[in-house]
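Hi everyone, sorry if this is the wrong subforum. Our group has a chain we'd like a structural model of before ordering constructs, and none of us has done structure prediction before. Sequence below.
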Amino acid sequence: AEQPHIRRLTRLAHAAVNAGKGLEFTSEVMTLIWNGEVDNWHTGNHIDKACVRAGLDPSLLNNEILEDPNKFDDLIEKNQSLQLQSGHWGSPLMVFQDEPFYGQDRFDVLLYRIKHYLSNDS
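Answer:
Right subforum, don't worry. Here is the predicted structure as tokens:
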């Protein structure tokens, strides 16, 4: 009840990941929600426009979700379970190589770890 738009957003996020554009979607939608330029981001076609800016077709995402909403709900539950197993309960939370990175101030450390991993892997 406190987050009436979370189900739609998380389903869309999973559909964006399936389309190979999860980070782009997240960047556009989080900017829309938090940059203060749009008061009612959840109304009208603001989310659809964010999808387009992320390189996604919002009608394809919505159709994929409508075809099998339970698939997306199962993914959400699985991710929530994995999040709790990692020892955290909020967002943003990223886990890389079993190391949790909690909070927006940890993105730089996560990026460093990923780059270090990739440079040692090649």
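For your construct planning: The chain has six helices and two strands. The chain has a mean pLDDT of 88.
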